[in-house]
Design brief:
- The complex is a heterodimer of chains A (369) and B (511).
- Chain A has 369 residues and is mainly α.
- Chain A has a domain of 243 residues: Orthogonal Bundle (ABC transporter involved in vitamin B12 uptake, BtuC).
- Helices cover 71% and strands 3% of the residues of chain A.
- Chain A has a two-stranded antiparallel ribbon with strand order 1-2.
- Chain B folds into 3 domains: 233 residues, Rossmann fold (3-Layer(aba) Sandwich); 177 residues, P-loop containing nucleotide triphosphate hydrolases (Rossmann fold, 3-Layer(aba) Sandwich); 70 residues, no CATH class.
- In chain B, 35% of the residues lie in helices and 25% in strands.
- In chain B, α8 crosses α17 and α13 crosses α14.
- The longest helix of chain B has 16 residues.
- Chain B is elongated, with a radius of gyration of 25 Å.
- The chains are: A mainly alpha (369), B alpha/beta (511).
C-alpha cells in the first residue's frame, strides 16, 4: 500500500443544487436560448462538413414539413405521434416505464388488419369499422395489461417486460403476413385489405384521424386532471407510500392505468391501418412507440403541451428528410442535425431544474501550509 | 499527540445546523464513544471525518497535521476507516473478494495471498471469519466483521463504527467489544457511535457527548456514571409552559395487547407491546428513534399487517369493540373508525410534495360521492380554512406543498387530519424541525383535540415536550415497552434511563 501522508486538497470547483423557484418567463427564455444555440451549432456543423449555406438548409427544413401539399400529411403525422404519446402518458405519470407502446400499437394494427382481411365484404363497412375498433382496443389492452399485472403482483421490471412484448407483436405480424399474402411479400397491401377504410371527410384523407386524436387529447386531459382516476394516478406516481397511507389499491391502479395506455395504443393502430395506410407490415409503427416517450416527456406529460412537442419532433423529422434528399446529403446528416437540436432542447431542462454554484471560498487549510 | 483532532467543525444543511463548533480528539490506543440522541449530529460528524461530507468551517488534524478530507479516498490515505450502519458489500462475492475490492496495487493481484492476509488479520484480532464464504450466506454479524476487516486490511489506524451494535444480538455485541479491545491494545484509535448507555460504560475510555448538533463535553468513562451521562445527553429540564388540562371523562378508546412484529430478516421490531389509549388524554410515546415507534403506529393505521396480538378500537357510540387487526386503511374507514394519522414522513407519506394544498386536502376525501370526477370545492374551502385558522404562510392554496417551510407543511398535514374530526389521533414527531411558534400551534391543536375527547397518541423525541404535554408517557426501548410513567410526576432522568434500558442487559444480569 502506498504511504501517502499528504493528501492533496481538492475542494470541488462548483456544486449543483436543485432550484424550485424558476418563473415561467425565465423558463421560456432558457428554452429560447437553447433553440437559438442549437440552430447556431447546426449552422456551423453544416458549413464545416458540407459547405452548404445553413440558411437555405433551414428554409428547406421548413418546406419539407409545410411546403405545398405537405401540410395535411404533416398534420396527420403529428396526430398519429400525438396519439401514441397520449397513450404512454397515463402510465408515465404513474412512473410506470412503459417501453412497449410500439408493440401495443402494432398489435392494434394487426387486429385491425385481421378484421379487414377476414371480415371485409362479409359485413357492412360501418359495422366492420366498429368491429375493427373493438378488436384494436382490446388487443392493445391485453398487450399492456400482461406486464402491468406481473409488475403489480410480483414486482417484475416493467421496462424489460414491455420491451420484449414488442418483439412478440412484430413476430405475430410477420406470421400474419405469411398467411395473408402467399406471394411472400413483406407487406399486405390495400388490395387485400380493401374494406373497412375510414370515410373521407371534406374530400380529404386523414381528416377523421385528426379529429379522433384531437378529441382524445381533450378527453385525456380531462381524465388526468379532473377525474378521481387521474388523481389516483398522480398520487401513485408521486409516492406509493402516500397511496398506501390513504388506502389506494396500488395494484389495481397500475393495471387499470396500463389498460388505458394499451387501449389508446390500440386506437393508434386502428388509425394507422384503417384510417391511413390500409396496409400492414411489421414496421408500420415506425418507432413511434419510442419517439412518443420523448414527446411525452418534453411536454412534462401534459396532453395539451404534447401537441406542440409532437409538432416539433415531426417538423424536425420531415424537414431533415427533405434536406438530405434536396442537397444530396446522406440521410444520416439530417439525423445529426435533428440530434443536435434535440440535445439542446432536452439539455436545457437541466438548467431549468438545477442551478450551478461556483465555490469562491479559498481553502483555509491549504493556505496554512 | 492526538491521532485525530477536530477544531470548531461546523456543518450546515441549508438552514439546519447539523454540527456546531465541535471539538473532539482521540489518541492512539483509545476508544472514544460518541453519545447523543438521534438527530444530535453524531453521524454527520463522523461522515465528515470519513470524507463523505465536507465541513463548512473548522479544521481536522491527523497526527497533529492539518488535513483536508474531501473524499473517502482521502480518508483512506490518512488511514481512517468507517464502518457504516448499512453495509456496503457485494452479495455474490466472498469475504476476501469484498475486502480487496477497489484496492489498487502495482503488482499482479493474487487472491490466495489476499486470503492469507485476511486470515492473518482475523487471527491477530480474534475475528471469526471464513475468507471464502459468500456474503449472501452470512449473518448480519459476519457481514459486519467483513466490513471491519476490510477497513483493517487497508491499514486503517482510526476506525469509526456507526452504531455497530444496533443490528447485533447481546452475545454478538460482546464478541464485537472483545475485538474492539484487542484493536485498542494494538494501538488503533476507535470511535464508536452509540446511544446505548451500558455499552458506553463497558467499552469506552472516554465519552464525547453531543446534543442537538452541539458539543457538550468529553468525560473520562471511569469517572462518570449513567445518571450523569443521561443528564448531559438529554440536557437540563427546560420549562416550556405548555398548557395541560386534566383529562375529563376518560374512557378506553384503543386497546393494544401483546402486539408482535418481526421483519423479513427475522429481527423483532415490536416485542409484546401492550397499552391502552384513552379518550380525552394525550398518551406520549418516548424512545430512541428507530425503537419501533413508526412500525407501531403503522400497524395501528393498517399500513403494516400483523398476525400476532390484538388491536382493538372501542366505538364511542355503543362501546362495542371493533377489531382493527389485519384491516386495510380503507376497511378501517368503512368500519366507521375515525382514525387520523400524522406520519413521521410528512412529504413522503402524509402529503404529496408536488401537489398543491387543495390536492393534498383531497387525499382524504377524494373518494366521497359517486361522481367519476373530482369535487374540488370542499377541499378548496378546507384549504382556505386551514390557511386562515392555522396561519399557514403560503402564496396561495395552489402552491405545491414542498415549497412551504417545514412548519407550514406540518400545519397543512395536521390541519387535514384534524378536519376529519377523529376519535383517535396519532402524530409521529409532529414538531420535528419546526420553529417555536409552529411547535406551539401544533401543541395547542393537540390539546384542543384532547379537550374534545379525542384519544391522542403523540410520538416525540424531545423529553421536555413529552413531559409537559402528555398525561401519560409510554417508553419504548428496542421494540418493547420499558415503562409507562405519569407525565406530571416523571422526571427527565427517569424517562431517559427507561429509553436506554436495553433488553440485553437484563438478560445478562439474569445469567
Amino acid at each position: 500500500m502506498k504511504k501517502n501522508e499528504k493528501v492533496k486538497s481538492h475542494e470541488p470547483f462548483f456544486h449543483i443544487s436543485k432550484r424550485t423557484d424558476i418563473s415561467l418567463k425565465q423558463g421560456i427564455i432558457v428554452r429560447i436560448i437553447a433553440i437559438l444555440l442549437a440552430l447556431a451549432v447546426c449552422g456551423i456543423v453544416t458549413k464545416l462538413f458540407t459547405g452548404d449555406d445553413p440558411i437555405s438548409i433551414f428554409k428547406t427544413v421548413f418546406q419539407g414539413a409545410f411546403g405545398t401539399g405537405r401540410t395535411l400529411v404533416t398534420i396527420h403525422e403529428i396526430a398519429i405521434l400525438l396519439c401514441v404519446s397520449l397513450a404512454v402518458t397515463p402510465a408515465f405519470r404513474m412512473r410506470f416505464w412503459n417501453t412497449g407502446a410500439e408493440g401495443q400499437v402494432l398489435i392494434g394494427c394487426l387486429s385491425t388488419a385481421m378484421c379487414m382481411f377476414y371480415l371485409g365484404g362479409k359485413v357492412p363497412d360501418g359495422m366492420l369499422i366498429l368491429i375493427m375498433a373493438i378488436f384494436a382496443v382490446l388487443s392493445g389492452i391485453i398487450w399492456a395489461v400482461i406486464p402491468a399485472f406481473f409488475k403489480a403482483h410480483w414486482g417484475t421490471n416493467e421496462t424489460l417486460f414491455t420491451l420484449m412484448m414488442n418483439y412478440v407483436a412484430i413476430q405475430l405480424i410477420e406470421f400474419f403476413l405469411k398467411i395473408a399474402d402467399k406471394s411472400g411479400s413483406n407487406v399486405v397491401g390495400p388490395d387485400l385489405l380493401s374494406h373497412g377504410w375510414f370515410p373521407r371527410l371534406f374530400g380529404e384523407n386523414y381528416i377523421l384521424n385528426i379529429i379522433i386524436v384531437a378529441v382524445l387529447t381533450v378527453l385525456l386531459y380531462i381524465y388526468l386532471n379532473y377525474s378521481k382516476h387521474g388523481y389516483e394516478i398522480s398520487v401513485v406516481g408521486e409516492s406509493e407510500n402516500t397511496a398506501r397511507y390513504i388506502g389506494i389499491n396500488v395494484k389495481k391502479v397500475i393495471v387499470r392505468t396500463m389498460a388505458l395506455s394499451g387501449a389508446i395504443c390500440g386506437i393508434a393502430g386502428l388509425l394507422l391501418v384503417g384510417g391511413a395506410s390500409h396496409s400492414i407490415d411489421s414496421n408500420l409503427a415506425d418507432g413511434r412507440g419510442f419517439t412518443a416517450i420523448m414527446v411525452a416527456w418534453l411536454a412534462k406529460f401534459n396532453p395539451v403541451t404534447m401537441v406542440l412537442t409532437s409538432l416539433l419532433i415531426v417538423f424536425l423529422e420531415r424537414g431533415a428528410d427533405e434536406v438530405s434528399s434536396k442537397f444530396g446529403l446522406n440521410a444520416d446528416f439530417a439525423e445529426i442535425l435533428t440530434g443536435i437540436i434535440l440535445f439542446f432542447i432536452i439539455g436545457c431542462e437541466f438548467f431549468i431544474n438545477y442551478k450551478i454554484n461556483f465555490n469562491h471560498k479559498k481553502n483555509s487549510v491549504k493556505e496554512d501550509k | 499527540m492526538n491521532a485525530l483532532e477536530l477544531k470548531n467543525v461546523t456543518k450546515r444543511f441549508g438552514e439546519v445546523v447539523a454540527n456546531k463548533n465541535i471539538n473532539l480528539s482521540v489518541q492512539s490506543g483509545e476508544i472514544l464513544a460518541i453519545l447523543g440522541e438521534n438527530g444530535s449530529g453524531k453521524t454527520t460528524l463522523m461522515n465528515m471525518i470519513a470524507g463523505i461530507y465536507y465541513p463548512d468551517e473548522g479544521e481536522i488534524f491527523v497526527n497533529g497535521k492539518p488535513v483536508t478530507i474531501s473524499s473517502p479516498k482521502d480518508a483512506f490515505n490518512l488511514k481512517i476507516g468507517m464502518i457504516h450502519q448499512h453495509f456496503k458489500l457485494v452479495d455474490i462475492f466472498t469475504a476476501t473478494e469484498n475486502i480487496v475490492l477497489g484496492i489498487q496495487e502495482k503488482q499482479k493481484f493474487n487472491l490466495k495471498d489476499a486470503e492469507k492476509r485476511v486470515a492473518e488479520i482475523s487471527k491477530k484480532y480474534g475475528f471469526d471469519i471464513d475468507p471464502k464464504k459468500k456474503i449472501y450466506e452470512m449473518s448480519v454479524s459476519e457481514k459486519q466483521t467483513v466490513e471491519i476487516v476490510k477497513v483493517l486490511y487497508r491499514g486503517a489506524d482510526i476506525l469509526i463504527l456507526d452504531e455497530p451494535t444496533a443490528v447485533l444480538t447481546p452475545q454478538e455485541t460482546e464478541k464485537l467489544f472483545k475485538v474492539i479491545k484487542t484493536m485498542k491494545e494494538d494501538g488503533k484509535s476507535i470511535i464508536i457511535i452509540t446511544h446505548k448507555m451500558h455499552e458506553v460504560l463497558s467499552v469506552s475510555d472516554r465519552v464525547a457527548i453531543l446534543r442537538r448538533g452541539e458539543y457538550i463535553d468529553t468525560v473520562v468513562t471511569a469517572e462518570t456514571n449513567e445518571a450523569e451521562l443521561t443528564e448531559m445527553m438529554v440536557g437540563k429540564k427546560i420549562s416550556l409552559n405548555i398548557n395541560r388540562s386534566e383529562p375529563e371523562n376518560s374512557v378506553d378508546r384503543l386497546i393494544i395487547d401483546n402486539l408482535n412484529l418481526t421483519n423479513t430478516e427475522g429481527i423483532k421490531i415490536l416485542d409484546s407491546i401492550s397499552f391502552t389509549a384513552k379518550s380525552g388524554e394525550i398518551l406520549g410515546i418516548a424512545g430512541i428513534a428507530g425503537s419501533g415507534q413508526k412500525e407501531l403506529l403503522e400497524c395501528i393505521a393498517g399500513l403494516i399487517k400483523t398476525t400476532d396480538g390484538k388491536i382493538c378500537y372501542i366505538d364511542p357510540a355503543d362501546d362495542k369493540e371493533i377489531n382493527l387487526k389485519e384491516k386495510t386503511p380503507v376497511q378501517i374507514r368503512e368500519l366507521g373508525v375515525r382514525l387520523s394519522f400524522v406520519p413521521e414522513d410528512r412529504l413522503g407519506m402524509g402529503l404529496v410534495g408536488n401537489m398543491d394544498i387543495i390536492d393534498n386536502m383531497l387525499l382524504r376525501s377524494y373518494k366521497k360521492g359517486h361522481s367519476f370526477f373530482l369535487d374540488k370545492k370542499p377541499p378548496k374551502q378546507l384549504a382556505d380554512t386551514i390557511i386562515n385558522d392555522l396561519e399557514v404562510v403560503t402564496p396561495g392554496p395552489t402552491t405545491p406543498v414542498r415549497r412551504l417551510s417545514g412548519g407550514n407543511v406540518q400545519k397543512v398535514l395536521v390541519g387535514r387530519e384534524i378536519a376529519a374530526s377523529p376519535t383517535v389521533l396519532m402524530a409521529a414527531y409532529p414538531v420535528r424541525g419546526l420553529d417555536i411558534n409552529s411547535s406551539y400551534t401544533i401543541y395547542n391543536l393537540l390539546n384542543q383535540q384532547k379537550e374534545n375527547g379525542v384519544a391522542v397518541i403523540f410520538v416525540g423525541e424531545d423529553l421536555d415536550v413529552l413531559l409537559e404535554l402528555c398525561d401519560r408517557i409510554l417508553v419504548i426501548s428496542s421494540g418493547s415497552v420499558s415503562g409507562i410513567v405519569d407525565g406530571r410526576t416523571a422526571t427527565k432522568e427517569e424517562v431517559g434511563l427507561l429509553m436506554t434500558k436495553a433488553k440485553g442487559v437484563k438478560e445478562n444480569e439474569e445469567k
